[in-house]
């Protein structure tokens, strides 16, 4: 693989940036600031799968940006059985967007592997996340300087796995499919999306029990060294 690869494209959330850990820390701060007396651990048990569900709908253009930002919180509080006004839900949503990028936990081996790859390849980001939030995550986590380009769905006008976002990223990076590689945590959006566009891909899945036939896969970022 290393012989033909010149440009490596990473997803950000759940791949380099530890979304669940940083998200939980953001909620801890918000619940305290807004004096929300809901049980945080119980809330997260509802919110985490609901957030995945809403992002999946957003990725498929089944809901709008605004519906994503409000609906996931409204549904989580509802299933928790916690009474909360729509006004306060909106405040939670607004504070969450501001607070989330303030935390900067990365997956184990992120800096080590970025240092290793940066010396040999051009590195890039392709994300379905919102431009303002993702930019602050990269800056606050201290990893923005590793990446030559950052492609997000807002600027591209489409979301992964739409091939047009990959084409946009290739154009921005001034590179070709055959010399590129995509690394991400989502089998559909990142891996199959890239493969269907003609770009080689590796799935990052911390759970070694999960596997997909015919898919190159790692459970720790340091394992990229055996491919690259």
Automatic annotation (TrEMBL):
Domain of life: Bacteria
Gene Ontology MF annotations: 5'-nucleotidase activity
SUPFAM superfamilies to which the protein is assigned, alphabetical: HAD-like
NCBIfam families from the UniProt entry: HAD-SF-IA-v1, YjjG_YfnB
Protein's name in the database: Noncanonical pyrimidine nucleotidase, YjjG family
